[in-house]
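quick one, 188 residues, struct below
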Amino acid sequence: MKIYTRTGDAGKTSIIGGRVDKDDVRVEAYGTVDELNCFVGQAMCFLNPDTNADLLGDLLQIQHELFDCGHDLAIAKTGVREYKVTAAMTTNLETLIDKYDAMTPDITKFILPGGSRASASLHVCRTVCRRAERCVVTLARTGDINEDVRNYLNRLSDLFFTVARTANHREGVEDVSYARSSDVFRRK
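---
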């Protein structure tokens, strides 16, 4: 099998149900999800497997689910193919958020992204996830989408925030509060 096809040389690409320009909002949406998946893989490289086996397993599952998101976003019309992302996947993210949040100290203020390499990388995942979510919101204005993908991405960015804090905590690195932040988080 050849990796290159030459079918995209004229600036078009295939999606499920047709062909579109490579800068189509649908391509931008699933392309940003693909970019996020790459950053998740990079963040995993910074996690110590001896102390983060649970987190690595959860992030690997998320990588598979991000492929599911990309699949669903590449569907041009509803009914052409079954969606893969479900509401249950978002509920699972909420369970993970609660699990990892319980492992970290309470915060009341915004924190600066950073600390350990793993935490900083997970914060990059959070912001790329937010960008992917914005792309999906834009796509939803003009085309059909699986709304479970939008919900999933919204919750996933919250998970990245939480696991970034978990990574710092496990490495003994304190989160740094934004100096001019008001109290924005409720205490547990």
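The beta strands are 12-15, 18-21.
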